[in-house]
Amino acid sequence: MATHLSARLVWHDDAWNGKICQRPDLNVSCVMHEHVREWRNEKQNADREIKASGNWLSEVKGWQPPCARDLGALSERGFRIVHDDPLDFRRLPFVEEDVPPYSFCPSPYRWMREENLRAVCEAENLKIRGPEDSKKERGWVFEPDRQ
């Protein structure tokens, strides 16, 4: 299978070892990522992250930091992650996933762009219907069944 993924990990001050950053309050590169910045803007979230600093993500219960998809890339421990749909208006249910050691959750952005989806389908021998608007040639693939 010819999978084309580009990954940009959220910066981590402890080498993506599966633990919450040692000093999440000083990790300014996180503000470059919109989903991290928005999450951290809520005071209770930033406080939780600081209190959990240095703990294994696999042992943190009841919440996860916004960088949870990335921080286990070089970890000897796996963890459980909860995926929420970033597009709230669709009201899709969350999905839990066990992420094995030395893994992270990349986003297949190329696959999720209308202008690339036909080529991906042909290369991967996938049968995915076209967009609801037959004139749409660019932009994000929004329909959940097509994603």
What's the topology here?
Elements: H1 34-40, H2 43-51, E1 79-83, E2 95-99, H3 114-124
Antiparallel strand pairs: 1-2
Fill in the keyword field for this structure:
single chain, 147 residues, alpha+beta, 2 domains, 3 helices
Average pLDDT taken over every residue: 83
Number of domains: 2
Distance between the ends: 18 Å
Q: How many helix segments?
A: 3
**Number of DSSP strand runs:** 2
Biggest β-sheet strands, sense, barrel: 2 strands, antiparallel
Low-confidence stretches: 1-6
Assembly form of the protein? single chain
Physical arrangement of strands within the biggest beta sheet? 1-2
SSE run:
HHEEH
Q: Measured on Cα atoms, how large is the radius of gyration? A: 17 Å
